[in-house]
Amino acid sequence: MHQIDIERIERDINALAQFGFNEADRGIYRQGFSEADMAARQWLRDRFDELGMAHRMDGAGNVIGRYGPDDRPCIMIASHLDSVPAGGIFDGVLGVIAGLEVVRTLQQAGIEPDFPIEVVGTSEEEGRFGGMLGAQAMTGHLTREWLDSARDEHGHALKDAMLAVGLDPHDALHAYRRPEEIKAFLEIHVEQGPVLDMEKTTIGIVEGISGVFKWNCRLIGKADHAGTAPMHMRSDALMGMVDFAHEIQRIIDEEGTDKSRITIGHVACKPGFPHTVPGEVDFTIVGRDLDVDVMTALAEACERVLAAIARRHKLRFEYEQMSWLKPAHCDPELMQLIEAKTRALDYSYKIMPSGAGHDVQFFCGHTKAAMFFVPSVGGVSHAPDEWTHWSDIERGTQLLLECVMELVCEKVEA
Amino acid sequence: MHQIDIERIERDINALAQFGFNEADRGIYRQGFSEADMAARQWLRDRFDELGMAHRMDGAGNVIGRYGPDDRPCIMIASHLDSVPAGGIFDGVLGVIAGLEVVRTLQQAGIEPDFPIEVVGTSEEEGRFGGMLGAQAMTGHLTREWLDSARDEHGHALKDAMLAVGLDPHDALHAYRRPEEIKAFLEIHVEQGPVLDMEKTTIGIVEGISGVFKWNCRLIGKADHAGTAPMHMRSDALMGMVDFAHEIQRIIDEEGTDKSRITIGHVACKPGFPHTVPGEVDFTIVGRDLDVDVMTALAEACERVLAAIARRHKLRFEYEQMSWLKPAHCDPELMQLIEAKTRALDYSYKIMPSGAGHDVQFFCGHTKAAMFFVPSVGGVSHAPDEWTHWSDIERGTQLLLECVMELVCEKVEA
After folding, report:
1. Does A246 reach chain B within 8 Å, measured CB to CB?
2. Within this chain, do residues B164 and B42 fall inside the same structural domain, yes or no?
3. Tell me: the pLDDT tens digits for B324-370?
4. Residues A108, A251 within the same domain
């Protein structure tokens, strides 16, 4: 059996961690199209050079290295090089470096793949400009209008950010890859959640990316003096929110699955004074499930419950659906391959949804695509203390190698 | 029977409404020691002049007009002339103008009181600097240290505000009135709550000012990605607050009275992002009751419930008691007098607590003091659309006259 080399992986991940590293909080600041992000992309191209791989940066900023024959569809191993502000060293990077290590291991073993391998460091996955630019570009989920209008939270235009690093924004539309160019898409990523770590499980085989809806909700009652208004004469908007929050678990129990999530992440009372009964409360609801019908049922239940609570508390209820992203399902054959290889390696595993978004979600439905996780210690991610044990990185990369070796070999019909 | 004149009252209230009136929102901006506030005080002194009353401004800015003999304890009729920002035209002003009208009516009837009447426009009742300066000064609830250190929410020092209008802050300590100088203290005020208006009742005889405690609370859990953290693996701080809020009515039912209030007026989630499980929630609790033992029981129940919820949700609970003000009880004999006069006038009434603070609370315990309310339409106050029907103003002032006429006359023992 061919073995990947964890020391090379560790060296590469640590090398990439220098790009955008901030001494003060020890976080990575490598936001899409920043100087650090572009330097990391050049670093990756230098590694492709070392391995003698053909490489290029496409119009969306994706860096693509190719190993193997020119005329056949590729096995694409991809994840992102950009980070959130104050991010960790593994998020995205793992999927790129694992791809590099797979090619390295095959080369050293003298294996010539029948199908080419493409290792891709995708661009702007973390949504600085509100999308997943690199993956969207490759799968045809971009429009000129969006490219022209997208801005980050500070008001900086995507097109200006791209022009500043020498990219023509409209060239992103040339990054499109036809489905028949890609035989399979694989992504390995840190879980960014607590499940594998808490359950002492090595591999999470992702069955799909949960769909997600986001609502901005408002309950409107009447602001009153907290001393003069008796409890039973109030129209306390916060108490409406509280009653709804109290029903969340019931809604999931009745309408959802163990993959359902409903979260209130933001609450603001108006006027927000300690001595005033809140006349208005603004809050967000983010709901998720892997099944679009379940998502719909959850959303309908939220609306029904909020409307009933508003009536009971003499409140007005308004909401605006800010987004509704359908679930994406991984390819069953690729999932079976991953599962078979995981069993062969005798790693513990579970089949699970991804509650977070990933590059892979745009490739699901476009081509055969799949993903697997390795554990995040304590579930921490998007923070400087994100961590995954090197032994789990090693196992995940070995699993990737086994899958890729199967995929790059021409099947000889019996 | 002598009758007060509602037309004179309406004229005076409208005249005072010009001081600090803001055309844009039609609110009154007459914060303590502002130019408008001081002009209103001068206006009141001019009215005292018209009635031939002795008058002065004490070291705290209270404007005091006196009618009757010099050598006997007074019947003090007081309320405040300052307003909150964007306040209404009746809050405080009613109690001063009603006192003026009582003196006017007695003068016109040729009644020479056996005991003097003092009509007082108190200073800084609305707490721009965090206290009720005028009433505290007259009743000995001031310290030099507080006078030197108090600041408003914009950081302006009380002492600078007083110096700017020609007052020496330390002179406020000379405003103290010995209890034996005051035979009785009476305040008429708009209710600033919905009870009288909803119950179609004319007079609210105040049995006391509810005590109040204010806590800044914090529940600390763990911020997680709202997609990757399953519901049962979260330490969602907001859900702890929600569980507590859900218990408020039960706590009042079990430990409180119909005069109890518990309010959460402010909530802030950290980080406060829609896609992040709140790792921390800061919120305020304001509790009130008229009985100090009930207040204590409510506070203890809040602490017990929050500690239990914190354990259940794997959260840490912290709180800081920002203030604890004991209830103040009105004088039973004065309450009986008001009740008897209300019955004689055949006005509907109820005996009720005041959930809001008023000048009277510092006179309770210092001397015999009592207060009564007239209805606020819709319970609205501290807002430009604060309103009380003129017919209720008329009845309230007539009631005040009846009470004062009883109090200023020497009782001849049989």
Report:
1. yes
2. yes
3. 999 999 999 999 999 999 999 999 999 999 999 999 999 999 999 99
4. no
Chains A, B: CB contacts within 8 A come to 182
Instruction: Please tell me whether residues B73 and B97 are part of one structural domain.
Output: yes
Residue A172 DSSP class: G
Q: Which residue from A210, A227, A263 is facing B355, i.e. has the nearest CB?
A: A227
> What CATH code is carried by the domain that includes residue A376?
3.40.630.10
| Shared-domain flag, residues B159 and B251 | no
Backbone phi and psi for residue B212, each to the nearest 5 degrees, phi listed first? -145, 135
Last-in-domain residue among A325, A340, A362: A325
Q: Are residues B222 and B197 in the same domain?
A: no
Which residues in chain B touch residue A286, judged by CB atoms under 8 angstroms apart?
A: 226-227, 274-275
Report if residue A414 sits inside a domain. no
Structural domain for B188, as ranges: 6-209+327-408
pLDDT of residue B327: 97
For the stretch B236-285, pLDDT in tens is: 999 999 999 999 999 999 999 999 999 999 999 999 999 999 999 999 99
A270 neighbourhood in chain B, CB within 8 Å: none
The verdict on whether omega for the bond into residue A274 sits within 30 degrees of 0, i.e. cis, is no
- Hey, what amino acid is at A4? I
Is A141 in the same domain as A265? no
Percent helix / strand / coil, chain A, rounded to 5: 40, 25, 35
Task: Record the pTM.
Answer: 0.91
With pLDDT > 70 as the criterion, what percentage of chain B qualifies? 99
User: How high is the ipTM of this complex?
Assistant: 0.91
Query: What's the total number of domains in chain A?
Result: 2
- Chain A residues near residue B252 by CB distance under 8 angstroms: 231
Residue A1 located in a structural domain: no
Q: Which residue has the tokens 């040729």?
A: B110
Segment 90-149 of chain B within 8 Å of chain A by CB: none
> Given CB atoms, is B86 within the 8 Å cutoff of chain A?
no
Tokens of A412: 């000889």
Contact A286/B214, CB-based, under 8 Å? Answer: no
Residues of A in contact with B231 (CB under 8 A): 249, 252, 260-262
Q: Which of residues 158-217 of A touch B (CB under 8 A)?
A: 191-195, 198, 210, 212, 214
| CA distance linking residue B72 with residue A181, whole number of Å | 104
- Do the domain assignments include residue B1? no
Query: How many angstroms separate the Cα of B209 from the Cα of each of A168, B182, B215, B354?
Result: 70, 20, 19, 5
Residues A56 and A158 in one domain: yes
In-domain check, residue B414: no
Enumerate residue ranges in chain A where pLDDT < 50. Answer: none
What's the pLDDT band for B133 if we cut at 50, 70, 90? Answer: very high
pLDDT for residue B410: 85
How far is it, in rounded angstroms, from Cα A28 to Cα A394? Answer: 22
Instruction: Give the gap in angstroms from C-alpha B396 to the nearest C-alpha of chain A.
Output: 19
